[in-house]
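Researcher: Last one for today. Full complex below.
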Amino acid sequence: MAVVDTVPAPVRRRPAAPGPLRRLLHDRVGAAALAVVLLFLLLALAAPLVAALYGKNPVEHYGQNLPGLLSDGGLPMAPNGGISGEFWFGLEPGLGRDVLTQLLYGIRTSLLIAFAAAVVTTALGVLAGVAVGYLGGLADRAFGFLANVLLAFPTLLLLLALSPVVQSRLVDPGAAEPEWMQFLVLVLVFSAFGWIPLALSLRATVRSLRERDFVQSARAQGASRFHIVVHELLPNVRSQLLVHATMAVPTFVASEAALSFLGVGVTEPVPDWGRMIARGSEVFQADPTYMVFPGVALLVFVLAFNLLGDAVRDALDPRTGGR
Amino acid sequence: SAGAGSTGSAPAGASAKETSPLTAALGTEKESAGPAPAVPGARPGGTVNVYNSVEFRHLDPQKVYAGAAYNASLLWGRQLTQYQVVDGKAKLVGDLATDTGTPADGGRTWTYRLKDGVAWEDGKPITSQDVKYGIERTFGKGYEVGPPYWPQWLTGEASYEAARAKYAGPQAGDLAAIETPDERTVVFHFPQPQADVPYMAAQSSSSPVRRDKDTGTDYDRLPFATGPYRIVEHVQNTRMVLERNPGWKADTDPIRNQYPDRFVFTYGKETLNINQEILAGRDGGADATTASDTLSPELYQTADTDPKARELVVTGRQGAFVTQLVVNNERVPDVQVRKALHLAYPRQQARQVQGGSRTGELATTLSSPALIDWQKYDLYPARPEGDPEAAKAELAKAKQAPGSLTYGYKNTPNGQRVAQVLVDGFAKAGITVVPKPIDPKAYLDEVHRADSPYELFEETSSVDWPTPSTLIPFSFDGRADGDLNSARYRNPAVDREIDRINQIGEPRAKAKELYALEQTVMKDVPVLPFAYPTVNQLRGANVGGAFVHPIYGTVGLSWLYLKS
Amino acid sequence: MLSFALRRALQALAVLAAVSAAAFALFYAAPADPARAACGPRCDSGQVAAVRQSMGLDQPLLAQYADYLGGILAGRDIGDVDGSVIHCDAPCLGYSYRLHQPVTEALTDHLPVTLSLTAGALAVLLVLGPGTGFLAALRHGRRTDRLLSGFTLVGASVQIYFLGYVAQWALVYSTGLLPLPGYTPPAEDPAAWAGGMLLPWLVLGFVNSAVFARLSRSQLLETMNEEYVRTARGKGLGRLRAHLKYTARGAAGPLVQLLGLEAGALLGGAVITETVFGLNGVGRFAAEAVEGQDLPAVVGAVLLAACFVVLFVALADLAVAWLDPRVRLS
Amino acid sequence: MLSVRDLTVTFAAPRGGEPVTAVSGLSFDLAPGEVLGLVGESGSGKSTVGLAVLGLQDPRTTTVTGSIRLGGRELVGGAAEPAGAQELVGTQELVGAQALVGTQELVGAQESVLRRVRGGRAALVFQDALTSLSPFHGVGAQLAEMYRLHHPGAGRAEARRRAVAMLERVGIPAARAGDHPHRFSGGMRQRVMIAMALMNDPQLLIADEPTTALDARVQRQVLDLLRELQREHGTAVLLVSHDLGVVAGTTDRTLVLRGGREVESAPTGDLLAAPREPYTRALVGAALGLDSVPGSELPTVDDPSPTRTFRTRGDAGLRPSERWLVEVDDLAVHFPGRRRLASPRDLRAEGLRLPTLRAESVRAVDGVSLRIAPGETVGLVGESGSGKSTTARVLAGLQHPSGGRVRYDGQDATRPDRELRRRLSREVQLVFQDPYASLNPRRTIARTLDTPLRLHTPLGAAQRRERAAELLEQVGLSADHLDRYPHEFSGGQRQRIGIARALAPQPRLIIADEPVSALDVSVQAQVLNLLMELRERLDVAFLFVSHDLAVVRHFCDRVAVMHRGRLVESTDRDRLFAAPHTDYTRELLAAAH
Ligand SMILES: Nc1ncnc2c1ncn2[C@@H]1O[C@H](COP(=O)(O)OP(=O)(O)OP(=O)(O)O)[C@@H](O)[C@H]1O
Ligand SMILES: Nc1ncnc2c1ncn2[C@@H]1O[C@H](COP(=O)(O)OP(=O)(O)OP(=O)(O)O)[C@@H](O)[C@H]1O
Ligand SMILES: [Mg+2]
Ligand SMILES: [Mg+2]
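Model: Here's the assembly. Have a good evening.
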């Protein structure tokens, strides 16, 4: 119970409290998933170090600058996407950059954006969904209105229409758009829309929970709305929340890739998984290898992350005991 | 030669070399008589599917102003003159007219006579009034989208607006500048000498329109046919069906054939799907061709390695287009700096990230090899992969170092990659380039507007017909605004020269002078030529007669037939 | 229930008004100039101005919007580029200068494709999403659970344009196992319709199913421990039936809510799927309209999508209330 | 009929703690037509036995060993399967069942076997009626399903008819068969549960506290029904109850449980008359009759002969210089009923022609006026469904009245301002009738108890935990229970947690809705003693909703009687019990004796 709680526990814990963390670590799959997720995070943090040891960087156009690596059409000459002792994961078709370092630095971009957006949307979704579901009445109607308007608006079209405005208004013409600005814009856009599905589905749950006696009882005791929302309702929607949060990360990585594809995502030369996959699908028939690395990396990450989510869910549910 | 005929398998880049392959010379009256030279091996019958990812913007002949639409509209529309294509070589001949026109008065008066037996789809003959009415329409409201030349030339005004102030279209009455002494004769009177009238007469805007069939806006959907086919069904954005036109007589038409029974256009499929369907040959894919969609980059490898697929690729030069890296001369006024940029330009790498030599041949000139009497020249030979050392030497001579240059590019994956190449390549010569993505839709506005902040940007330019008349006088006239003169090149001497040459009424003489002027301009390196682009399109295995039209730059539909 | 439906309808109207206003403002305020696009690259500024005037884009934004709303309610006359006047009937969403067609008509042309796509994809999604989620919950913690979860997660981590492309390549173009994706009106040839839509259905359903699978799994696990489920088993109901009838019902609320969202969003936002499979539906229509800066068409498509979202979200609300009688409709 | 040998039930370690052995080494037999009473203090494992017989515990957390055989005839060579841990579900063996016609081993039996037994041959009445009924289905449908499950040939209409008939037999009008459980009162839900269990005329009925929420009259009616069935079909009944009166009147034999072990087992008459074990003796001694001295300390198992007498308020009513704590005037609560198409007959009666949607509202409370003085204890009695809980909920501020006025300490409490709301939430506490439903399943007991302490006391975190432990001990639980979740408690334990929660902020008024209904006599006595002590020390007022007249008589100063939403009588305790005014009250009293 302790690890995920957002509120400080008011009561002294039993010293040997076998918390959910321990339950989680006992679960073999959960522990493995945790390890994989941590590994990815570690790699993201240590990307410069690893790149330095390996002796390549993610921006240099090796394939274009050194003869004999890429064909006239930009495809790696060596088989398997140009994998060699020199370039462990091969070369990027076209620009001829090193795939391994791109992949490493790409973790940073993709995961930073996805995590940030997931955190923001989950927080917003939870607050809005639970609060509104509990309060009902005017708040509910206002929320319903806002959610419907936002939902009804096709995000993709909006992005296409708006991103140039953002770019032309906010960025000085003589300067390249700074990385953080791209990140920020993406996170904001994802956040602006991403919280609604969670909020709506939580609202549905909370609506039925709020008529239950235990909520009524807290009300009768004079618990504040905040208390009811945070302490009584939240614990009961935790697994729903977890599902959303863990699904949000891969979804955002994928959406970010789709946006890169449409030219409103992260632009070159910032390394990015999404864009790598998009590029990979372009050259899939000619150079499938290039698709494999970011594709598999994303898949492994998503799987691990979701299995972790499952394991945490199980560890948190008081009613499903140890297996 | 460009568009190597029906085999269509000539490897890219190898076909167009050194001098112009094009004899867009004016044909004689005899050459203008029908019927069109038969396509070897062609047989009549069947339905050809034409796949096009997006609907043509316009079908109204006076609004059509794009190569692919010109090309397709040959199926149902005829003009005064048109290009006869034999073995990939184009020759301008009389189409509705008996010849390419007779100039008089030093090019101020041009006379056309219509052929006998030319008729509308309902069988009524095409008259000189129909031709006149069609050209009058180009003055009308709503026809801004078409070329401005008839209004400008016929009124002698430099701007389209001013021309329309003088005459506002058929609603405003009769246009005196065009005479129709009889049913068959059209006489144009121009205030200034005009050398390019025969070429303009081949444009879609020179198509006749019958006043009683002019449905206004709806004419853009269902134009009344004069060509070998007529449109029998058209659901916008979805489908268009063409059938043989009973009013068309083969022996009046020296250009077009009428082999298939029907053409069915399908719109709204994604390019990649279209190409894959044609390659797979399923569900009508074997009988299909594209009208403007080119081979998707995803399939380059397949097209290179799979012999069956390679068969189906039709390759040719994309009309008279030239891709160039435009330098904003106002912001980079120093010739030395521009020259340094020219030398450092990593053209080969930039082409490599876009698909390599398949996409085009590196360019050294402002004009395209597709123009008549074109000659290759290379004023400042540069290494294709860029020559940082030479560029640095050139920079040393500059009055002032360029500082950092902003490169505006269309924000597409391809655009981003090219930007990376340029940043990398120019950096080797010590030039800092800051890439700035621009929304593709707003791109032209953004780079053309008066206070545009970009020093460098890419642009593909083309002339309107295969003479240099619409190149230097339009794009490098210091008096024109950024929309036309996107390099903001200002050279009074050049401007004077333009005015002088414009007075020449004889096409070939005029062209010669213009080529000389081009080299004068190119000495100042106002733009950095990049490539003469190549198109690669697919045709179905059962489709014969496919070649890239040397003028219009896409697969010509009027010559297609089904092999079985 | 009745008053709820009425209130929902009113709210929906308000939402649509807000969406249309927002769409109008946003798209008209974007930097790209539709008149320039309509005119073509060789136009000089004078020509562009003329085009702008005939398209009515020189009017103040509010006036344009007012005209637009009026058109939806009562139909209106629209000036064409050449100065002639076109009448556009009552639910008039404007006139597309690009297509020379009233937007309403253009949308109805493309709608059947998108409807077919969505309906089938939803069916696939329901089987793959809640279906696998249910199985996984039943086999909680065992290998089936892990396998199923993994399977649907793969869907969550691939992108539709990649999967769609690879699937077409593998199943259609190189092996010919499946018919070419494409739309045939079901009235014309049901078999061809289903055949042409099969792959899009599968891919779209699969890609979107993961979130449902996972949500239903966790919701079911949650509800499985309720006392009333135990009662049901005490009656002699089998595990499966007890869970189907009681647990599933208890777990359905959030799922239905999400499903409503998804259905609306699928209808409105099938851009990528339609693009990938070359289907000429509303999504692609909208994308092309954006590309061609065909503002009336863009706003029309947005409104249509909004209608679907609003409709399905409201239906989901109703369904949730029906599923759980304790929920009071407010 | 039923033979239980060496039954041991262990719950897996909740979050790493010690495993809980709820039942150990229990053996008993039950013959056809026999009624066995299972008594014992709250938490002694009674419900666990019932659930184990039908194999309804979660197999992942529960280990059941021993043997449970269900059969029509005497067991042959009934050597039980050697005790060894067996998973209840999923184990393939069917221990010795094939050899014995009609006899089935239920421990480790296959799911399909259990499925046929459950609800058909053996039915179970669950203890917690609200949470045990599906909130999503109408009660009629839930009953009909029970029938159809075991009569595959029966049609829908047939099942429906039987369901409605059965509901009527337990006193629920046919018209309400379509309603959802949350629209029923506690006692009505309990009767629905009973009706459900009786649908298939089971051979074995396990009834877990079936009558806790029923007033004496309905209780008798239900018990009569049970007896009737038993006569007709020879049903064997395992009756779990803490109410020794019920046990005495219904059962043939009684088994006393304590801490999961058998204490004593004998024919009921003998056992109650001459209990052998001291525990049983104490238990019997603790039973409350209508002859107790009101306000005296009650005997418990731990303290079988107390001497103390608590101070009661004596005269009901206001002392000078006091004002009423609660004044209720003309209170009405109407629930919108289900809308249905009015029948043609109704329409004709009302002179209408078009069919209209009509909602007949349920008048749960209809013009109740009530006063409670500070420190006074008012008992609220009345038959099941008469509106007691609804009245209580209004007073606690959880239900908006449709009419009437509630004043608290002179202030209007129907529309309280901020200040008053704060005060009310501290000074008025509610003990819910359905204890499980009122506990948040995702919060430990420590956290549940912490809420009122944090809100209404200035204590620090550590002190609060101590106080929570103290509260638990006061209601007879231990500090070890603090970190458990609600589902890990027995019904009576949950009820005591509810009481502890209400006591936490030291309120002035406690509205207690059947607070001791699920408690065995001993614990009930302990809780009542606690309440009386509090009353004496802190001058707490009570609105005490109960159907148990003995308790009411012992504990309350004044008694109000409700009938069909109206207050039919409100008098001094002694006067009421001596000379009831209304027929209805007389009837109630008569049923209790
Ligand atoms: N939400 C509701 N909707 C409709 N009717 C309701 C609702 N809640 C209670 N009722 C009805 O109101 C009446 C009074 O219910 P209440 O719970 O107050 O009874 P009670 O006196 O507490 O009975 P018991 O002793 O059985 O608990 C009952 O007939 C019940 O069915
Ligand atoms: N799921 C569980 N996990 C852990 N402990 C449990 C669980 N269920 C019940 N217990 C414990 O087992 C013991 C017996 O519970 P049971 O419900 O059988 O009691 P009971 O005799 O029915 O009591 P009551 O009369 O209060 O209903 C109690 O101490 C309870 O706390
Ligand atoms: Mg119990
Ligand atoms: Mg009650």
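DSSP finds 14 helices and no strands in chain A. Residues 1-18 of chain A have pLDDT under 50 and may be disordered.
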